[in-house]
Design a protein that fits this description.
This protein has a domain of 314 residues. Helices cover 5% and strands 34% of the residues.
């Protein structure tokens, strides 16, 4: 969520209403925080009143190089053999490394199906108008590359303008620190413009299936990554994808991942592995990372773990089956902590797990800003002695939680809540806004401790069934909605009530068998506050409360 100030000085003088944002500021700048606090809605979000910050999606990589058309004269071949060739179809290169040694800009090498016991690496860069491509001859029958030795990646891409398409990678096995496929810089020069397509990486024991570091404009697409498990000398992190320092404009799209001893994706900053990492952003921290339309499940830790990364978008993914394990006591789907900033989590389906999303860590760093919107969080369940939670935040600078649907969080009692903010002195949140959410069959809908929240604004939430208990827990006490809406904190009479009276308690009337569409006449239809960064179709009479906009 990159903050935006409103051109407000003149507006305030003239008494004009809040306008659209005109000039950006960084939440990491103190002046920006002062402005955000000054113009943050006071106690409640009202119709026609817009929060003066909004999320921005991460910038996507430039993928124009993928459309390059290779001429017949530039087509080469690889077929497993003990002898060398010239790369022609009649006399193919005998190994994948031989192809990497000889390919020139603007050439493509097709690899015959077989098992290639090699550790391969690039030797030369392509050009912006002539990328180098290594591809399976038969996409339905991938060539298999297995680690010949365990002290090196199976494949290492350390040059620019490379496309790798249609390979199966296996290993390296434990114990090792190496990943299956590494994309990184060569001597002092960042690698740029790399595409990994239709990769199947599995059964490694190193750091990750795919490891990005000091690379810009890179894509991992339509790939399957699973069972990377670091088991020696003890069970430890091995991720599906690791996005490390120096990474910028990274797109992780359309992949499937499961069964890793770490996370399906971890984004890790420059100093995040230090015993006491500093609470500031580093120049080489990853930025502009997009995790889009993936299916992640059943890892030992999390689907996505965002540490000190800036401008990260987690969008339209399907995440499920995260429960407490030997590597994680909570079973949390998404974790955002350390010095993360401008994180946008939107449009995801999160289900069959213990916790949906957890933002902020007591020990390390300071999360700057996060937006959690249009997510469907449902059918969560407790794991072991751990309670169920949809979204929690603290410590952090700013969070906006809006237009989400939370449903079926069990058990429906005080131990369960959809949204928790400022739970104790270690979870202080400077600015928070919660509006346009549906919470149905989810224990206590909202838990707030006002002493640990700098400014909190709420409004236009819809609270459904809560098994007869009060829908809110304020400062550890059950609180009726009417009391929350009438509550006037000191000074009494200041007319700074919480919620503005726009939150409702009613059945949201979901359409059976759908992904939380609303029936005609639902109290959620047309009753949402218009968010500032409205970027979806709205039906008459206005936007709906909840994650799904239902049009006739």
């Amino acid at each position: 969520m990159r903050g935006h100030i409103i051109a407000i000085v003149s507006s305030l003088i003239s008494g004009a209403a809040f306008a659209q944002p005109t000039a950006p500021f960084s939440f990491s700048e103190e002046r920006g925080w002062q402005l955000a606090e000054l113009f943050w809605p006071d106690r409640c979000v009202e119709y026609g009143r817009r929060i003066p910050v909004h999320a921005s999606r991460a910038e996507l990589p430039d993928t124009n190089f993928l459309s390059y058309a290779y001429s017949p004269a530039d087509v080469k071949y690889v077929k497993k053999s003990m002898s060398s060739g010239d790369g022609s179809q009649l006399n193919p290169w005998g190994s994948i490394q031989e192809a990497m040694d000889h390919l020139s800009p603007g050439q493509i090498a097709y690899v015959y199906p077989d098992t290639y016991p090699e550790n391969v690496e690039t030797k030369i860069s392509g050009l912006p108008t002539k990328p180098i491509r290594l591809a399976a001859l038969d996409p339905a029958n991938r060539p298999i590359i297995t680690a010949a030795v365990n002290n090196a990646p199976v494949m290492k891409i350390q040059h620019s303008y490379w496309i790798v398409d249609g390979f199966e990678l296996k290993g390296p096995s434990a114990p090792t620190t190496d990943s299956a496929l590494v994309v990184t810089k060569t001597v002092g020069v960042n690698t740029e413009y790399v595409a990994l397509l239709n990769i199947h990486a599995h059964d490694g024991g190193g750091g990750a299936g795919v490891n990005f570091g000091y690379v810009k404009h890179a894509v991992l697409r339509n790939s399957t990554i699973h069972d990377f498990r670091k088991t020696l000398p003890t069970l430890d992190d091995s991720h599906g994808v690791l996005v490390g320092p120096g990474s910028d404009h990274i797109l992780i799209e359309g992949n499937e991942s499961w069964g890793n001893s770490g996370d399906s994706v971890q984004c890790q900053g420059t100093n995040d592995l230090l015993a006491n990492p500093p609470k500031d952003i580093q120049p080489d921290d990853p930025k502009n990372v997009t995790i889009f339309n993936n299916h992640y499940r059943s890892d030992d830790e999390n689907a996505v773990d965002i540490k000190s990364c800036q401008s990260v978008t987690v969008r339209d993914n399907n995440f499920h089956s995260y429960v407490p394990s030997a590597r994680s006591t909570l079973g949390t789907v998404i974790v955002v902590h350390y010095n993360a900033d401008n994180v946008l989590i939107e449009g995801n389906e999160i289900w069959d797990s213990n916790w949906g999303a957890s933002v902020g860590s007591i020990q390390f760093g300071q999360v700057r800003s996060i937006t959690f919107r249009r997510n469907r969080v449902h059918d969560l369940r407790p794991g072991g002695s751990v309670t169920t939670l949809g979204f929690r935040i603290g410590p952090a600078e700013a969070a906006i939680v809006y237009n989400n649907t939370f449903h079926g969080l069990s058990p429906p009692d005080a131990s369960t809540s959809a949204v928790r903010i400022g739970n104790d002195s270690n979870e202080y949140v400077r600015l928070a806004a919660v509006f346009n959410n549906i919470v149905h069959e989810a224990g206590a809908a909202f838990k707030y401790h006002l002493g640990y929240i700098g400014k909190l604004a709420t409004g236009s939430n819809l609270i459904g069934a809560t098994s007869g208990q009060q829908p809110l827990i304020i400062n550890y006490n059950f609180t009726p909605l009417a009391s929350w809406q009438a509550w006037q904190p000191p000074p009494i009479g200041s007319n700074k009530n919480f919620d503005c009276g726009t939150t409702l308690t009613s059945d949201p009337q979901f359409v059976p068998g759908t992904s939380y569409r609303l029936q005609p006449g639902s109290p959620a239809q047309g009753n949402a506050i218009w968010p500032e960064d409205l970027d979806f179709a709205v039906c008459v009479p206005g936007p709906d409360i909840g994650a799904v906009e239902t049009c006739p």
